[in-house]
Amino acid sequence: MIDLLGKQPRLYVVENELASHDPLRHVAVQILQFSLSFESDKRMVRKILFEALQERLEDLHKCQNYVTQRKYRNLDHLLDELVFEAPFTALIIIDELEDLERLLTQKFQFGIEFLEIGCFKDNEGKRSYIFEPFLDDLGGGMPRPEEGEGDSPDPGELDTVVVPARAAGFEKVFLGEDRWYAVRIHGSMRPQIKFIACYQVAPVSAITHLAPVGSVEPWQGSAKSVVNFSEPAAEISPVRLLKGGRVNAPQNLRYTSRDRLRSAKTLEDLW
Amino acid sequence: MSNELVFTFDGAVATPVKQISLADAGLTERRHLQEWVLAHPELLGPDALIVTFEFDRWRSSSGQPERDRLDILGLDKTGHLVVAELKRDRAPDTVEMQAIKYAAMASRFTPEVLALQHARFLSSRGSQTSEEEALELLVAHADYELSSETFLSPRLILVAADVPPRVTATVVWLTEMGLNITLIKFLAYRSATETIVTVSKLYPVQDVEEFTVAPLKPNARPAAVDYPTVEWSLEDFKNLRERANATTMAALNLCSCNSGQLVSLREIEKEADLERAIVEVQDTLFGPQRIYLDIKRKSG
Question: Which of A23, A35, A45, A182 has the most CB atoms lying inside 10 A of its own CB?
Fold first, then answer.
């Protein structure tokens, strides 16, 4: 899957799986084989991509538009970037996620994303699907009708995670232990996360502190991570929640960039 | 007499109980032994489902009714039929031939006919069941798709109080030839207060099964080793690419990932369904700026 959403194009090797398959002997082995094949013969991967696009005119036009907009020399240049420059990233689409994310996240060095898609059939055989659009929570995913694509951040620019914290956790862990744990960070985002910011919930209702990230490590055998700071968190100009505004207070981890954070006055400026 | 020793205990005192025949105990094949198996199908194996019993509705190719009566017909988890022949006493020398005959006749079952008989069986036991419901029960029991092809090779189970060596030798040879036969032996004992029945597998021998049966498996499927090995050419792969649909690709994918193992049609269907679902919803799933290239047939 070719991701042309941001300034940095990305290539995902997609593995469609069933939850009934053995997570290690079947799923992990396939992912490993894909990564080895990818690394050992990148020219072949590039050739396959090129030929596939030649057969899909609509997709070819999307790539050519991207080439023009992002100032690539030509399609070859874009494909070289995708295959030779971008890190290998896998996307597993599965009917039931269950424990797979926890089992696989810790097995591989490269990024892995997971997408769950449930399929239902009614008595007449008509199918319905349930899923969340891919990387929807990055903020730059599917444009919502009322928002449009307007000012969504470019996924390639995202280098900061914003975590909501209550006063006690903020004091004890964020400031006291120089870390934040049990956070779920997308596998493909981990390499580019450089900062962590803290949104203090009401009554503060603002992002108030920022710390550089030293490492992101697995958290207690779960699919979640602990973010260790390389330096203690520093206070920044507060980025406040606008009451009655378009952006709600963060309930879970969200992504942004440090540059946006520096210039923002309210959460409306971030997302 | 069996080598098996059975005791009753009262504190430190062990009293041997006397082995008897089921006939001595006044027990019969149909009223007792058969009912035990119907009530406890695990006697036929850990995963057997009773489909019907005393089945005698056969017809010859000329349309004439046949009078043979199959004692118990079951279904195992792999979707194979289980044909059980029960003998209250010592099995006669030709019991294996009798079981083979029933297995041959049962191999002509289709899932629909099997469901019809299962519905009749359940209804006769007090649980009114339609053919559709019976089919659902059978499908739910098996891990693999029910098919007439799988029914072609039923599992045979001979249950008897004793099995003569001639039968045992024949069963061992038939196993080597690829038939799946189990011998089950039961023994009755009488203590001062009650009658006890023990049931044990006589063949394949429980603990050494892997040693005695596993090496024989290659012989059991001689056709498999005779298949010629043909290398796939680039042209073959191109042809496959043009012709393969989602189901074919799912089958190839699952088979290549599970070399030497059974892959159920249901699993292939589920994987193919998932592939179709992703293609169908790709625009919403990935958004307009992402391109999902369904090129497994090329890259695989």
Answer: A45
Q: Where are the alpha helices (DSSP H) in chain A?
A: 29-40, 42-54, 57-69, 75-80, 100-105, 167-169, 258-263
| A57: three-class secondary structure by DSSP | helix
Whether pLDDT at B252 is above 80: yes
Domains recognised in chain B with CATH numbers: 7-223 (3.40.1350.10), 229-299 (no CATH)
Across the interface, whether the CB atoms of A2 and B290 are under 8 A apart is answered: yes
Distance, CA of B25 to CA of B156 (rounded, Å): 27
Nearest to A1 among B258, B277, B293 (CB): B293
How many Cβ atoms sit within 10 Å of the Cβ of residue B176? 15
Decide if B271 and A18 are in contact by the 8 Å CB cutoff. Answer: yes
* Residue A260 in tokens: 């946006």
Q: Is A26 on the interface with B (CB under 8 A)?
A: yes
Residue A61 at interface with chain B, using a CB cutoff of 8 Å? no
Q: What is the dihedral of CA B124, B129, B135, B136, to 10 degrees?
A: -130
Q: Can the peptide bond before residue A203 be classed as cis, meaning omega within 30 degrees of 0? A: yes
Range in B43-47, B136-140, B242-246 the model is least confident about: B242-246
Q: How many C-beta atoms surround the C-beta of residue A22 within 10 A?
A: 11
CATH number of A155-269: 3.10.590
- Transcribe B22-49 into DSSP letters: TTTTT--IIIIIHHHHHH-GGGG-TT-E
> Residue A252 in contact with residue A138, Cβ under 8 Å?
no
Q: How many CB atoms lie within 10 A of CB B7?
A: 11
How close does chain B come to A164, measured CA to CA in Å? 27
Cα four-point dihedral sign A102, A108, A111, A116: negative
Runs of H (alpha helix) within B142-295: 148-151, 165-176, 209-213, 217-220, 222-226, 234-243, 246-257, 265-286
Q: Is 0.85 exceeded by the ipTM?
A: no
Interface test with A, best of B275, B289, B297 (most A CBs within 10 A): B289
Nearest to A254 by CA among A196, A213, A171: A196
In this structure, what are the phi and psi dihedrals at residue B272, rounded to the nearest 5 degrees?
A: -65, -40
Looking at the predicted structure, is the pLDDT value of residue B213 above 70? no
Beta bridge partners of B195: B190
Q: A42-73, pLDDT tens digit by residue?
A: 888 899 899 899 988 999 999 999 999 888 99
Quick check: B291 and A5 CB within 8 A? no
- CB–CB contact B270 A95 (8 Å): yes
Task: Please report the pLDDT score of residue A185 as a whole number.
Answer: 84
Measure CA B252 to chain center.
Answer: 26
Asked if A24 is an interface residue toward chain B (Cβ–Cβ < 8 A), one would say: no
User: Which chain A residue shows the shortest CA-CA distance from B293?
Assistant: A1
| Residue A186, helix vs strand vs coil | coil
Sequence-separated (6 or more) residues with CB below 8 Å from residue A12 = A1, A3, A89, A90, A91, A113, A188
DSSP string, A76-97: HHHHHIIIIISPPEEEEEES--
